[in-house]
Amino acid sequence: AMGYVSASHAALDSEVWALVRGKRVAMKVAKTPFVPQRYYRG
C-alpha cells in the first residue's frame, strides 16, 4: 500500500501503522520505486 505520512514520521525504515479496510497494519517507510525499473525507453 502507498500513503502519505507527516514529515516527523517520514524517516526511512521507520515503522508506521495504517488502517487497511478497518484493520491496523504495520508498515515500513520506503523509497520509491519499490521495485527496480527493468524497462527500456528508446
From TrEMBL:
InterPro entries: GcvT/YgfZ_C, GcvT_C
Gene3D superfamilies linked to this entry: Aminomethyltransferase beta-barrel domains (2.40.30.110)
Boundaries of every Aminomethyltransferase C-terminal domain copy: 1-35
Annotated SUPFAM superfamilies: Aminomethyltransferase beta-barrel domain
Domain of life: Bacteria
EC number(s) stated in the UniProt entry for this protein: 2.1.2.10
Pfam families tied to this protein: GCV_T_C
Alphabetized UniProt keyword annotations: Transferase
One Gene Ontology molecular-function label: aminomethyltransferase activity
Protein name, as recorded: Glycine cleavage system aminomethyltransferase GcvT
Organism: Metapseudomonas resinovorans (Pseudomonas resinovorans)
